[in-house]
Amino acid sequence: MAKRETPLLDQLESGPWPSFVTDIKRQAETKPECWDILGILELSYKERITHWKHGGIVGVFGYGGGIVGRYADVPELFPGVEHFHTVRVAQPASKYYSSANLRQLMALWEKYGSGMTNFHGSTGDIILLGTRTENLEPFFWDLTHDMGQDLGGSGSNLRTPANCIGESRCEWSCYDTEEVCHSLTLHYQDEIHRPAFPYKFKFKFSGCPNDCVASIARSDISVIGTWRDAIRIDQAAVKQYVAGNYPANGGAHSGRDWGKFDITKEVINLCPTGCMWMEGAELKIDEKECTRCMHCINVMPRALRPGLDKGASICVGAKAPILDGAQFATLIVPFIKVSKDNDFEELIEFIEKVWDWWMEVGKNRERVGETMQRVGLPTFLSVMGIEPIPQHVKEPRSNPYIFWREEEVEGGFARDIDEFRAKHKA
Amino acid sequence: MAMSKEELKKAIEEKALTSPKPQLYIKDFYAVDPDTKPRDMKNVANEMVREGKLMFWSSGSTTMYAIPSRIKNEEGAGGIGNVE
Ligand code: HEM
Ligand code: HEM
Ligand code: SF4
Ligand code: SF4
After folding, report:
1. Is the confidence at residue B79, as pLDDT, over 60?
2. Alpha-carbon Rg of chain B, whole angstroms?
3. Residue-level pLDDT at B14
4. Does CATH number 3.30.413.10 belong to domain A162-227+311-406?
5. Residue whose CA is closest, atom 7 of ligand 4?
6. Ligand 3 in contact with A175 (CB < 6 A)?
7. Chain A residue closest to B84 (CA)?
8. Hey, which residues 100-119 in chain A have their CB within 8 Å of chain B?
């Protein structure tokens, strides 16, 4: 495949940021088919229309996911990208790699694919971009047999679950995110590798409200670590921060002189619920008003720590902007214990309750968050058998109507009107 | 009374053979037997894929089912004009 002239794309290289055009040109030195990626994109820039077709084959033998079929609609012009399928590879929990593993994976992808990769974009897993249909089975064989690694989820499957580094390196983790992610990945192998739902479904696990895997923005079920008791305060360490002896934020912003640390300005006044104050040299927190936002803990990690009664909150229904715009997940369960002792039974029960309902009520290509929005939160809560609590309420109501369900009305809707009117004149 | 597995397979095959478009959503199969739970229906359809009676067809984000002989090539009957 010959080098392509790409005057329009070349302009992108002149900007201040690193350019994918430069990257792909470099890759084309060893993988000439990459010239055709640039060529087909240049043509699209000229004609203002895409030349990619979506969809088709989805997997390797026995799997119904992990491969995303992509084809050029002008293969005669760009034979190098006639097929340009994406392969999803499941990442290890917390994304711990050995360099040996990465080298082996790259060697495999140089052999069977374009060599281009996208590690951990918004979808989360390892994305290997660009291969031909006839390479899929040999690639899969080597991946599973030589490397003991597996494909991830795509299509209407459960997508590769993801988690933050959790207890492996982070003192803030309120449950073992790696254990949950690994256990549920094994538990739901069938759902990951074969279509199971009307549309995609994701769950992600963060150990604390810093939510390092952005689960609240990206997953249908987002499990975020939290605690029920008070933030632990070491008053001696608070004094050290106030005196400027400990660097704020663990020194993360120390590249520049920000002036003297000011606990009122940098911590107390930034507390979103205004539940902190100083009493003399003592820092006080009104625990029941604290929303566990992590801000004060992030700023003064040596003085403040999450409480000891730890567990997680479950939020449901985030999605990226495909139909109705981006949406964060909504808090559904404020606190559950997450424990391997009962094989995460409560979490699994919750997940399957959501699935059973969504598979029935959800429309084709409707994420569970959209289904929830369509039926309304009160309906969703009652389906899940969850009592509404103030934390479910987003804002004070602006609508004066109250709707009753029949079982909430004494005597039901079939109550005798004459009997009622006898006591209450119209 | 939910249908037996064999009855479900026959009904699914019939539906997939006669649908206007070759690709069907899993939800299209729910209608063949309202008494079968969605997750059981999914298991039957996936078993039919293993047996070669159906094939998967995916846009990348949504997976559909089709009778292999109704799909002209591996890209699938001209696609369904989806976004991902
Ligand atoms: C099927 C027939 C009717 C429907 C569906 C209907 C519906 C409504 C609705 C939705 C409101 C707004 C309520 C609010 O937000 O406060 C309203 C207000 C009102 N309607 Fe009707 N209406 C009907 C017939 C009538 C008739 C026949 C009358 C008068 C003879 C009437 C007089 C009013 C008045 C005065 C208000 C204002 C009440 C207020 O602001 O406090 N409506 N109606
Ligand atoms: C104008 C061009 C394109 C637009 C606007 C577009 C948009 C999108 C969007 C919004 C997503 C969903 C992202 C997410 O939910 O994480 C996506 C996913 C994806 N796109 Fe594209 N895309 C374009 C072109 C392409 C091309 C040219 C390819 C490959 C040749 C491609 C391959 C994929 C793949 C493999 C996925 C993941 C599918 C999934 O798992 O949901 N896209 N794209
Ligand atoms: S989400 Fe919390 S527990 Fe997990 S790595 Fe980030 S800060 Fe640590
Ligand atoms: S965690 Fe957030 S809400 Fe709670 S006391 Fe600290 S700053 Fe305030």
Report:
1. no
2. 12
3. 94
4. yes
5. A271
6. no
7. A54
8. none
Q: Which of the listed CATH numbers 3.30.70.20, 3.40.50.1100, 3.40.50.10790, 3.40.710.10 matches domain A232-305?
A: 3.30.70.20
Closest residue, chain B, to A365 (C-alpha):
B62
What are the structure tokens assigned to A183, written together? 């256990």
pLDDT digits (tens, 9 = 90+) for B26-43: 999 998 999 999 999 999
Contact B61 A154 (CB under 8 A): yes
Residue B14 lies in a domain: yes
Residue ranges, chain A, pLDDT below 70: 1, 57-58, 322-323
Of A69, A194, A322, the CB nearest to B46: A194
Q: Name the domain count of chain B.
A: 1
Q: What CATH number should be reported for the domain holding residue B31?
A: 1.10.10.10
Number of the ligand 4 atom closest to the C-alpha atom of A270: 7
User: If you average pLDDT over every residue of chain A, what do you get?
Assistant: 92
From the CB of A212, is ligand 3 less than 6 Å away?
yes
In the prediction, which pLDDT does B81 show? Answer: 36
Q: For the domain A7-145, what is the CATH code? A: 3.30.70.2500
Domain span at residue B33 reads 5-76
Q: Write out chain B residues lying below 8 Å of A356, CB-based.
A: 37-39
- Nearest protein CA to atom 31 of ligand 2, as residue: A70
